[in-house]
Amino acid sequence: MSTRTEQISQRQRTELQWNYDVASIASRTDISFDEIFRTLAALLLSACPLPESACVRIVVNNNEYKTPNFMETLWQQASYIRVRGVRVGRVEVNHFSEITEAALLKEEKSLIGTVAKIVAGVVIRMREREQFRVLLDSSPVGIYIVRDGKFLYVNPEFQRFMGYTADELIGKNSLDLVYHEDRAQVRRNTVNALKGQLFAPYECRVVSKDGQIRWIVEKTTSIIYEDKRAVLGYYMDIDARKKLEWDVAKYKELDDLKRTLLSTVSHELRTPLSNIKGYASLLLDHQYKLDDSDWLDFVRGIDKDTDRLTVFVNDLLNLSRLEAGLLSVNRKLRSINRLAKEVIGEARIRAPHHLITLEITGTLPRVRMDVRRIRQVLDNLIDNACKYSADGTKVKISVSRKDSDILIGVSDQGIGIAEEDLERIFDPMYRIKHENSEKIPGIGLGLSVCKGLIDSHSGRIWMESKVGKGSTCWFTLPLDVRNIMG
Ligand code: ADP
Q1: What is the pLDDT of residues 25-56, one digit of tens each?
Q2: Would you say domain 139-237 falls under CATH 3.40.50.720?
Q3: CATH 3.30.450.40: does it fit domain 3-135?
Q4: Whose CA is closest to atom 4 on ligand 1?
Q5: Does 242-324 match 332-478 in CATH topology?
Q6: Is the dihedral of CA 323, 325, 330, 333 positive or negative?
Q7: Which atom of ligand 1 is the closest one to the Cα of 470?
């Protein structure tokens, strides 16, 4: 190969490398636009035929990017930067002394033209980014970008809704803002979005800085952000809609309850009332003709039906107070042993045909409770145990300590409850239908009242049962931490 040919091919290689450098600097997303323009000015100078006696200036949107040796001279070549036909700046090379060689000037002019075109491309990208930013910043929809589970971008609406600043969120784990029960679903959806699988928007709850839990409807898609795959999420606040839906459902539930209540109340009131009226009329009409045993039977009848009415009216009152949040609970440190013993004594009198026993395990600390309310719960559970089991069977009340709770169980050997009814029996007015249920008095309020009372003590209540074998209704009362330690 001749030296001339070698020289040409070397020049071509340098030119190619320069073009490549210029193009790749212009497309970089990890450095600022200012840095891109400054580097392009330096690259242009390095490629000029006489770089040691020249300097470069790029003017874009009235901003100047100059090589460090810049000074304005008389000997200048320049090219305008045009975006869609409109001048947005210029690229210029200033020479410290005049160049007369036309070939050099031509070569330089072509380099300036190339840089001007490249800068025009960068300006377009700048504008697009600006438009994108304006769109994101003014969007009424919350928008964020996440990569590797961490926030890369959050728009102002997202910051306002969540109550955090961008600085507090960028780099933080995005799932931390999702309500814990919804995290698994949101994680799954994000993974699907990254795989590029399309799916419908989904509803989930988020927790804002002030601890408020709110519903949003969200959609996530996979995007390329700053050269790497990321997840773009956008959502709308649907909290008000959700609350309205609940209100409607609650209203419907209350309406159904009212209807059932009215029909049950009339039945449950009428039966004992007409019994009492009947016994009282008999006593009045035949007061002198009745022997002692009839007389006792009638008075017992009045006594029993009055009790039935009292329980019924109390349940109704308590339920309405619980529903309205008006039931007062006055908790004081009291002995659960003593209460259980008192309750058992009275229950034995009420239900003489059942074998009611009490089993207390260990020495138990005192419990912070409203004795009147817990007595009501125990009475109710023992009455149920007796109501739903045959005479002569056992009813056992057990009291023990389980970790930081007192655990109380009321077991019977009665008809039992099917698995599917175990949750629902705590709903107001829910009664299980079976052949004898009509004959067993009750309106399905007792357990819902018990649940309300135990809830107000921050305890739990649940039923375990086997059909035909019997049931145990358990409830817990939390122990006062200071009391346990002491
Ligand atoms: P009710 O006034 O009907 O007894 P509750 O709210 O106390 O109302 O109980 C709801 C329903 O749960 C009852 O109607 C009954 O079907 C069922 N239930 C409650 N306790 C027992 C039990 N110990 N054994 C069997 N079924 C029970």
Answers
A1: 998 877 889 999 999 999 999 999 999 999 99
A2: no
A3: yes
A4: 442
A5: no
A6: positive
A7: 24
